[in-house]
Amino acid sequence: MPSRSLRMFISALCLLAGIAGRARAEDPVLVNITGPLAARVGEKVAFEVELVNRSGRPLQGLRVVDYFDKGFHHPASASPIEQRGTIDMAAGTSRRLTLDFSLDEPGRQCHRVEILDQAHNYMGGATECVQVSAATTAQQFAAPAASAPVAATPAPVMAPAPVTAPAPLMSPAPFSAPAPVAAQPQFQPQFQAPAPSFTQPVPVPVPVATAPLTLQPLATTPPSPLTATATAPAAAAPSLELDLSGPAEVTSGGVAEYMATVRNTGAVPSGPTKLEFSWDNTYSPLEASDGYVLGTSTVSWNLPAIEPGGQLRRQINLRPQSPAASYRDSPASRSCVRGVLSGLAGGVMVADEACAMIRSSAPRPRTPREAGLRLSIADLDDPVEVGGATTVVCTVSNNGTAPSGQLDLVVVLPDQARLVGDPRPSRVRIDGSTIAFDSITSLPPGGSATFEMSYRIANAANVKATAIITGAELDGSLESICTTSFVSPLAP
User: Which of 11, 30, 67, 209 is the most exposed, fewest CB within 10 Å of its CB?
Assistant: First the structure.
């Protein structure tokens, strides 16, 4: 029957396990690590990491960070290491990558993979350990052969001075006959065949008394073929790097050029790979290097093998567009382009990202009065006899401190009015009683423009002519009205 304290300890462990299980189940990203459970010092081990987006929503900009014990060795850096670039995952999808380490020290060695977002929030993680034993060497293999005669005559080496009882047991005749000769011929053939012995390392240390007998012939023994096989692939593996470059700042409506450079820094040629660009929806594609395959907000290339020290480049030009509510004085928006190189051995992917600040070129809308615009319309003849004509002059002035931008002027005449001659300037569009002049490109500060037209009325009446000015950079419109009296002539 367990004691009360033992039962409380077991209950606390179960509670902690339940809390940890619930926390893991709630992580947005499930992390599964698969790798060896045991290995030896000097070997290389590979861990396959599977990431599953179970959050029910797309995840962008995920960072993969690996923390590992000092018994692990990675050529890139000491612990921790972070995968270059970030990972985007649609809801319900998974990604795989491989982590390779060399083993430097015996014992239980662990490493932990954590997934973070751009705000450094924890999104998921997992830990995997491997039990590392001492390296299999010729000295360890020779330990069983050397220990046989020591068991028969342990008194000179293993027995401490105070122990006197075992001494008479080690000298009887039954033990003296096999000790000199019988043990050594039996173990010598096993030492000549190293292949099966390397599968079971022997942890028993070599006694001091027998060390000269076993170490001297082993000094000339050639290296084990198993060791050569384990280290050869690592020394001759291709190594690909991806570098994505682009502008730091670009104007909305301009052209942003992004260049990806893939380098082989390894010692052997790489196999065929795939390079893919993806970008935010504020970009639209313009052109790309030959051989591209265009998708929805993506473009990809199938890359050939790259020789050691060689490199390949692929480029895409995008047109950035700032948000609709952005203006020249608004803060710049940030948009990114991501590059992913896939198809490497072991399912490894290499990623990089380049981001740019997009600034709007649109001015913030101003009312005509804020822009300093003035509009006037006046008639040259008033009153006018019926059957006669009057000339209307419309003047647009910029009294502000900045160019006005493009302006549009429309003059609306009375319904019964009939034009006399051509308006000045003559490039107009006439729709009934509405006269629309061609756009004014821009008025500089202190500038003005004048427009004229003549019309007549067949009946006596007081009529109005209205001038209206609008602009692409104006918030609202500006109007001005002119009233003219048409009167009947006096009777003779």
Answer: 11
